[in-house]
Amino acid sequence: MIHSTGKYVMLLLLAGFSTTASLEPKPQPAPLDQEEYLEADDWFEMGVALNGEGRYREAVEAFNRSISIAPDNPLSWLNLGTAQALSGDYTRAIESLKKSVRLDPKLALAFSNLGEVCFRADRFEEAAQAYSILLSFWPDNANALYKLGLSHLFLNDPGKAQAEYLALKIIDPDLAEKLRHAINQSVAK
Q1: CA 107, 44, 50 angle in degrees (round to 5)?
Q2: Which one, 66, 133, 167, 175, has the greatest CB density within 10 A?
Q3: Distance separating alpha carbons of residues 73 and 99, to the nearest angstrom
Q4: Average pLDDT, whole number, for the chain?
Q5: Ramachandran angles phi, psi of 4, nearest 5°
Q6: CA atoms within 13 A on the CB side of 28
Q7: Domain count, the chain
Q8: pLDDT at 87
């Protein structure tokens, strides 16, 4: 939130030292729902809170407002994309998450979410690319290895899926077993 608290504290301190200050209550700062006083951080925090409450469409609006004020914030784009995905709008979510990774190409969580949303949208080539980049930052991410292996299967490349299985076997044997099972089913078809 905009940190105007310091101004009010200073005003209260100055008023307290003044011998002419009245004892009437001072007006309170405007409530957060008065949007003309909100800044990008306020909208961002509101979006995070709404997202946490499962109010995804309202969270999308809050993140959009944050971005309209500060369009170069990769975390706002990440959270917008996440809220869009949770509300079922995968196409816009992918666009927002791609904007997030363009703004911050080392934001691992954005690549993770981008991979997941692309996977759910049956855009397996894009999912595989996002998971591969994520694994360059976080090589022992079991979920990324698993989903990358599944993406390769959906792209009809069981050899690459097998490679992910072998890497996953060391990190998470249970998840590796699920991938092995999917590979076997794919090959049996």
Answers
A1: 110
A2: 66
A3: 10
A4: 85
A5: -85, 0
A6: 4
A7: 2
A8: 96
Domain of residue 51 covers 36-123
- Where residue 36 falls among pLDDT bands split at 50, 70, 90? low
Confidence bin at 38 (pLDDT 50/70/90): confident
Distances (CA, A) of 130 to 61, 123, 183: 26, 11, 21
Question: 153: closest CA among 105, 109, 119?
Answer: 119
pLDDT at 34: 52
User: What Rg do the C-alpha atoms of the chain give, in angstroms?
Assistant: 24
Summarize the chain as % helix, strand, coil (round to 5): 75, 0, 25
Indicate which CATH number applies to the domain containing 79: 1.25.40.10
Alpha-carbon gap, residue 139 to 7, rounded angstroms: 47
Which residue, among 162, 173, 105, has the nearest Cα to 134 in the 3D structure?
A: 105
Neighbours of 144 (CB within 10 A): 25
Closest CA to 147 of 161, 133, 158: 161
In a domain, 129, yes or no: no
**φ/ψ (deg, to 5) at 88:** 95, 5
Backbone CA torsion sign across 139, 143, 147, 150: positive
